[in-house]
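Here is the promised in-class demo. Please do not try to memorize the tokens; focus on the logic of going from shape to residues.
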């Protein structure tokens, strides 16, 4: 918890966590930890995007109109036909329906973008079932998804959104795993208390914490709680 006197009020928990991480961890270990968190963050990012694709309900498509800006990045759209686009969206997913007519038949492509909070992955499927930049939803999963139409799982990363989401999910994960303990120890150290047990060490110099027997180092109150010796030293 942050102290109520406002001394640490300027620091967000994130800043406290990183100050503490850099002080207590080597640069190599820190880089490795960041890499691992980013890796898990990217997996979370993909899982969230696919979850949005599979389970988010889509609004009914809007009015068909020609939106040239939506054409970018969609393959298989003929330039010489008038193409009408409709957009439907749900939580973390947007679907664009492109339709155009050739003599005797009409064609349609669904282009799906998904991810939260940013759109991170894209994929498309045409009505005949040809899929580009996407995976077909596996059959065992399709049974768990109650939806009237096929939704391919997009696998083409959208660079900006993918990076932002991965960073955010990694940061959230790091805060959940490392945050509470780091913030607690940081605040105990600042307020002259034993890092291991919270005992108030102010007022006199201690070689060991009188409460838990942890070693008190010269740089403040860095305490090893794993001390076998519990005799207090004044
Ligand atoms: Zn202690």
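The designed amino acids, position by position:
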């Amino acid at each position: 918890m942050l102290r109520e006197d406002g001394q640490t009020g300027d620091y967000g928990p994130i800043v406290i966590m990183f100050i503490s991480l850099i002080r207590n961890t080597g640069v190599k270990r820190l880089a490795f930890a960041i890499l691992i968190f980013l890796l898990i963050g990217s997996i979370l990012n993909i899982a969230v995007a696919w979850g949005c694709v599979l389970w988010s309900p889509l609004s009914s498509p809007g009015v068909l109109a020609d939106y040239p800006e939506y054409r970018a990045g969609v393959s298989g759209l003929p330039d010489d036909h008038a193409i009408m686009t409709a957009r439907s969206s749900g939580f973390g997913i947007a679907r664009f329906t492109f339709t155009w007519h050739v003599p005797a038949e009409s064609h349609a492509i669904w282009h799906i973008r998904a991810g939260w909070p940013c759109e991170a992955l894209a994929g498309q499927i045409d009505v005949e079932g040809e899929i580009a930049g996407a995976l077909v939803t596996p059959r065992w999963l399709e049974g768990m998804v109650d939806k009237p139409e096929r939704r391919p799982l997009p696998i083409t990363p959208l660079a900006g959104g993918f990076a932002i989401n991965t960073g955010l999910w990694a940061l959230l994960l790091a805060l959940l795993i490392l945050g509470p303990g780091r913030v607690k120890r940081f605040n105990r150290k600042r307020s002259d208390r034993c890092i291991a047990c919270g005992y108030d060490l102010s007022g006199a110099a201690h070689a060991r914490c009188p409460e838990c027997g942890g070693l008190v180092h010269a740089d403040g109150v860095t305490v090893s709680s794993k001390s076998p010796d519990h005799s207090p030293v004044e």
